[in-house]
Amino acid sequence: MSLPGTPFSIFVALLAAATACTHFMTPNPLFVRNLIDFSLTFSSSVIPSTIPYKLERSHHNHHHDKKTIQNICDDFAPDFPPPDTNTTSILCVDRNGCCNFTTVQSAVDAVGNFSAKRTTVWINSGIYFEKVIVPKTKPNITFQGQGYASTAIVWNDTANSSHGTFYSGSVQVFATNFIAKNISFMNVAPIPLPGDVGAQAVAIRVAGDQAAFWGCGFFGFQDTLHDDRGRHYFKDCYIQGSIDFIFGNGKSFYENCQLNSMANPVPAGVKSINGAVTANGRASMDENSGFAFVNCSLGGTGRIWLGRAWRPFSRVVFAYTFMSDIVAPEGWNDFNDPMRDQTIFYGEYMCTGGGANTTMRLPYVQRLNDTQASPYLNMSFIDADQWLQPYT
Ligand SMILES: *[C@@H]1O[C@H](CO)[C@@H](O)[C@H](O)[C@H]1NC(C)=O
Ligand SMILES: *[C@@H]1O[C@H](CO)[C@@H](O)[C@H](O)[C@H]1NC(C)=O
Ligand SMILES: *[C@@H]1O[C@H](CO)[C@@H](O)[C@H](O)[C@H]1NC(C)=O
Ligand SMILES: *[C@@H]1O[C@H](CO)[C@@H](O)[C@H](O)[C@H]1NC(C)=O
Ligand SMILES: *[C@@H]1O[C@H](CO)[C@@H](O)[C@H](O)[C@H]1NC(C)=O
Ligand SMILES: *[C@@H]1O[C@H](CO)[C@@H](O)[C@H](O)[C@H]1NC(C)=O
Ligand SMILES: *[C@@H]1O[C@H](CO)[C@@H](O)[C@H](O)[C@H]1NC(C)=O
Ligand SMILES: *[C@@H]1O[C@H](CO)[C@@H](O)[C@H](O)[C@H]1NC(C)=O
Ligand SMILES: *[C@@H]1O[C@H](CO)[C@@H](O)[C@H](O)[C@H]1NC(C)=O
Ligand SMILES: *[C@@H]1O[C@H](CO)[C@@H](O)[C@H](O)[C@H]1NC(C)=O
Ligand SMILES: *[C@@H]1O[C@H](CO)[C@@H](O)[C@H](O)[C@H]1NC(C)=O
């Protein structure tokens, strides 16, 4: 609501982009339709917000015509949210004011510092225009949305507007044990033009250890997902961007995710590169970080690299992943620093699709054998048995 008018153009742009990339291959054939529904859902949830429709609960039971007074809160079960138990607490967020909180941040603020309980912040459908911070003092928070195409936290900071890329995230998580389910994180700053400086716009920064994302969406262009530090799990997520759209020094396992390149379409025959999926920031041999993608799919537009070596010991593996032919034959980039060729670890294993042909890959790219690939193929990569709770 603080950004009147902004969403419509952005969602129209998203919609146009989604329908333009008809060759996008994905395990979920409903993707384009989902994105269309997404725009429509959001548009319709924004439009009525200019009308003062929030009415008192049960008001209409007494007088008048039921049809003329419709209570938007009627869908809420009267006993929701349930009372706290000794292990969990649920806080309810609804932008229309149907339960305790109207913003996500106000719910986060109400969580006790260093609570040992898990607090689920239940977030109703709609767009929440706010910048959200989950501070270090608030471990064990879950954001539960109603679907990545129905619930989103959206802001529009850029590197320029927020003292640097690292602070531009619409959501920033510094706490440990953070979980997000069925919700999207979006940055709707203007799409960077080629050569733009300071236009990086992060959707979420994940800077706490032991974070898990299930069925989430990440929407942006340059630097969408700041996988900053700590061990992270992403399952069934949709991640879109153009340049370095998954970047940082986290140690992360991406399973069954859809990666969608939004780089400008490149005409056949043109060899220039205009996008990169990853920019992993592993800086030294001592660091245990890296990104593993397993059973994912990569499509969209542009002519892109799978990764570029933001730091000298950058480490990324793609396994069992479908890649469309938007991936340039050389595959990867050393950030124009040949010294890094000795220290980066870029591996591919059992990938399929036109972009997965490794014949023309640069010499430092590793075609992993079974033994070399095995540490990257399951959740033991992120010590999941020590912390990851099954999805419930
Ligand atoms: C974010 O959107 C608001 C409202 O449209 C606008 O005033 C502001 O300049 C935008 N910020 C950036 C960095 O684009
Ligand atoms: C939590 O509550 C349950 C009953 O609801 C009780 O059996 C259990 O002992 C309690 N646990 C603690 C740690 O208080
Ligand atoms: C939520 O609202 C209910 C009823 O208005 C109130 O009893 C309860 O204390 C509130 N909970 C929080 C966490 O603010
Ligand atoms: C958490 O701690 C901060 C200061 O560190 C304080 O300002 C805030 O009120 C505390 N929040 C709660 C819910 O206790
Ligand atoms: C809460 O967070 C602390 C510190 O990160 C952790 O030790 C504890 O296991 C967490 N509790 C739950 C219920 O997740
Ligand atoms: C960011 O700020 C720099 C310096 O003020 C300016 O040159 C540049 O155009 C700005 N970038 C964007 C995308 O506004
Ligand atoms: C929520 O995410 C889970 C895990 O990815 C998925 O199985 C489920 O269908 C999603 N639910 C909704 C309502 O989107
Ligand atoms: C892989 O690329 C090479 C060189 O461009 C080509 O000769 C070969 O036929 C391709 N392999 C497949 C399976 O498409
Ligand atoms: C895999 O590659 C490594 C390193 O080149 C080699 O030492 C090992 O013998 C290979 N293992 C298999 C099963 O081929
Ligand atoms: C996961 O991978 C590790 C090491 O690569 C291996 O030891 C373990 O057996 C695997 N676990 C499963 C469930 O496949
Ligand atoms: C990847 O998919 C294969 C085939 O469906 C399955 O056997 C394997 O367990 C999956 N691995 C992960 C990490 O999801």
Automatic annotation (TrEMBL):
Pathway: Glycan metabolism; pectin degradation; 2-dehydro-3-deoxy-D-gluconate from pectin: step 1/5. GO terms for biological process: cell wall modification; pectin catabolic process. InterPro entries: Pectin_lyas_fold, Pectin_lyase_fold/virulence, Pectinesterase_Asp_AS, Pectinesterase_cat. One of its GO terms (molecular function) is pectinesterase activity. It catalyses: [(1->4)-alpha-D-galacturonosyl methyl ester](n) + n H2O = [(1->4)-alpha-D-galacturonosyl](n) + n methanol + n H(+). Pfam families: Pectinesterase. Its EC number is 3.1.1.11. PROSITE patterns: PECTINESTERASE_2 (PS00503). It is found in: Secreted, Cell wall. Belongs to the pectinesterase family. The active site is at D244. Acts in the modification of cell walls via demethylesterification of cell wall pectin. This is Pectinesterase. Residues 1-20 form the signal peptide. Residues 93-384 form the Pectinesterase catalytic domain. Keywords: Aspartyl esterase, Cell wall, Cell wall biogenesis/degradation, Glycoprotein, Hydrolase, Secreted, Signal. Its main location: secreted. The keyword Ligase does not apply. It is an enzyme of class 3 (hydrolase).
